[in-house]
Amino acid sequence: MTIKVYVPRDSSALSMGAEKVAVAIASEAKKRGLDIEIIRNGSRGLYWLETMVEVATDQGRVAYGPVKVKDVASLFDADFLQAKPHALSLGLTEEIDWLKKQQRLTFARVGITDPISLADYIAHDGYKGLKNALLLSGADIVKTVTDSGLRGRGGAAFPTGIKWKTVLGCEAEQKYIVCNADEGDSGTFSDRMIMENDPYVLIEGMTIAGIAVGATQGYIYLRSEYPHALVTLNAAITLANQAGYLGNNVLGSGKAFHLEVRRAAGAYVCGEETSLLESLEGKRGLVRFKPPLPAIEGLFGKPTVVNNVISLATVPIILDKGAQYYADYGMGRSRGTLPIQLAGNLKHGGLVELAFGITLRELLYDYGGGSASGKPIRAVQVGGPLGAFLPESQFDTPLDYEEFTKIWAVLGHGGIVAFDDTVDMAKMARYAFEFCAIESCGKCTPCRIGSTRGVEVIDKIIAGKDTVKNIKLVRDLSDTMLNGSLCALGGMTPYPVLSAMNHFPEDFAS
Amino acid sequence: MQALQTQIDALISQHQSMPGALLPLLHAIQDNVGYVPESSYNPIAKALSLSVAEVHGVVSFYHHFRTHKPGRHVLQICRAESCQSMGSEALEAQAKKCLNVDYHQTTTDEAITLEPVYCLGNCALSPAVMMDDEVYGRVSAAELEALIAEAKA
Question: Are A407 and A401 in contact (CB under 8 A)?
Answer without folding.
Answer: no
